[in-house]
Amino acid sequence: STVLKQIEQSGDMRMECGFLILVLVLALLGTQTTRVLGAVGTSSRPYEQSNLAVPSAAMMGRCPKKCGNLSFAYPFGMGTGCFRNPDFNLTCVVEGSTGTSRLFLRDGITEVAAGHGSGIEVGWSPEISISYTETVPVRSGVDVYNMSSWSPPGRSFLLFDASINVTGCGFDVYMLDHDLNTTSKVCSTTCPGGEITETMAMQNCNDTWCCSVRFFFNFNGFQFSFVRRRGEEGRVNYTSPLWNKISVTTDDAILLWYVADQQRCADAEADVATYACLSSNSSCTDNDFTYSGYQCYCDGGYVGNPYVRGGCSRDKGYKPNQQVTNCTRRCGNIDIQFPFGLEEGCFAREVFQLNCTNTTTSTLQMKDDDENQVTYINIEEGLVEINYTADYYNLRFSANYIDEESNLYMSSYWHTSSVQWAVANLTCQEAQMDMSRYACVSSNSTCLIVNSTMNGFYGYRCKCSPGYQGNPYVHTGCQDINECTNTRGICEEVCHNTVGSYYCTKCPPKMDYDTTTMQCTSIKRQNIYIGIIIGLSSGFGVLFLSLSGVFIVHKWKSHIRRQMRRKYFRKNQGLLLEQLISSDENASDKTRIFSVEELEKATDNFHQTRIVGRGGHGMVYKGILSDQRVVAIKKSKVIEQEVPLLVYDFIPNGSLYGILHSDSNTSCLSWDDCIRIALEAAGALSYLHSAASISVFHRDVKSSNILLDGNYTAKVADFGASRLVSIDQTHIVTNVQGTFGYLDREYYYTGQLNEKSDVYSFGVVLIELLLRREPIFTSESGSKQNLSNY
User: Start and end of every Protein kinase domain (predicted)?
Assistant: First the structure.
């Protein structure tokens, strides 16, 4: 019990320290951001710079490149002279009993796992899937156990994402923070009895037999302490082995690696002796996760290893001819056309190799990727439809990471089901210079450039020429389209199909076009006068019936609208609102209920010229009432309609965003005004969080939601995304909602909304006031940049 009290007291101290740190960060936001971010990711281990000289081609040829099924390349290596510095020194251990090869990082305990790739990918992915396991024996009479401290094996690594599973019986799990000298409880394990294996426990890790802890951006590693729960003593000899030991195992853990001998690319490029990006046609990219270190990549159109001289070469991986004849071209009901394929020799390059795991359920997956399912391949549009079964951090195509292969799948940063692809990282002109590897082999096909809105140029793909359809990647794959039969009504009369096109003609004289038979037929003689009489009579009859029907329908709809208005007026407590307004002595003369007709008249029937703002929860119109008052009308919910309208006083000076970023100089805020506006907005948020009877989390704090009246007094507006929180709640779990640039990163990754989420967004508004820059702006180099990162 003494140990538990010490742990709980240290947890309380940690909460108080966290609150003080939050206040200090907001108070010193303008001067401390760079210093704080610069400190992230540092390590107490001195950086060792041995082996910075790149090994010769002869030595590289002798250096191992595989350990079992896992591959790696320089700057990683095994043996003297095969790695850049000790951080990248690997060890391959072969199990004597099974002959299985296991690859470890420099510390000898962090194992490289197969994960979603085939080892350590150089020149493309900075991620390494790792595995770490530790077992702590349980002894009778001992209640507190500590595991060994684990940390990233060198300055060149940080723990990006990991789920830690703890299996055992009757223990509370505490995390030890040596920097703050604190301990906090993270999960507990309970064992209801019976016998269960460790493997079975980890398959359903839900605090029974097993509990889990999730890390994001963990820079210093982790260490746990295990405290036996009361009433669990003396049960060590239960039949299940989980009573006799505590196991700590990583589940889908990701390390990020980078070159850490220089802070940024500018520093690295200035130091030619230690610069890592040695290959021509390679580029340096800053490590934005720790703001320390960099990575190297081959330029667009080049693939390979940028860390060795001549490592980046032109993309020559596409094979335009199918190597075998009897290829399987279906997986259940999914059609698999070339350049994709299942068997060796049936696909154009390795990134297009697929795996059909179940023909009955049409389960089709990328090679070495058992978490994301391919549901459809569109050859003509260059799209692959993906059904993501993994979480956000596992949305990757492992086939892209094959060594010496190109990045050909244009995966969006956001969760999307349609992914574009290219056949090679070349322009059309470059691809056509080597016709032996040119993908558009079908006649009547053309080459198209594939571009990404996020990453720019990706490569090229093929498409059948207009008037043709099919597969442009196989000979004679593009076939003529018969527009006349495929598109009815394409011609007014006779349609004639040609190769790749069509043309239209009229029927000969005394012939008429029959749309049913799609042929010209003879015109039958008819009595023209009878036809005129019948036509006029029918026309007048139809006109009379139509007018009568329109009149009846109009009267019926008017009656229905009146009934619906009365219904929704009562449903939305309109009668109660009228009573409250009439009985409240303090109610202003301006507080009243408006009819739809009054608001339609005030806004010219909600004309587009009266729109003064648009938001995610409605449209805002400027209206002029009959007493000449100017109001703002938000079309979202009126007592007489299913979705009423809200009428506000019109704010003449608009939003803080409009004044800060307007091109005109008519409205320029002084520094005193900026400070006053910031204080007024902060006071409003403080009231919402702390003074209101029920706390309100705004969820969309931004400069465009801070309005300025005639005296430039700040008013926090637009509560369409806000959430009410009871007093006993510190946070709520909800769908992520907000505006990019202002959105709290912790809220974005965890989905846990609390008052600090509003404070983070308000901090961005303070930077916006200070620097007069938009939250997402274009830098001098022309790239999009986030103001909070800037």
Answer: 529-790
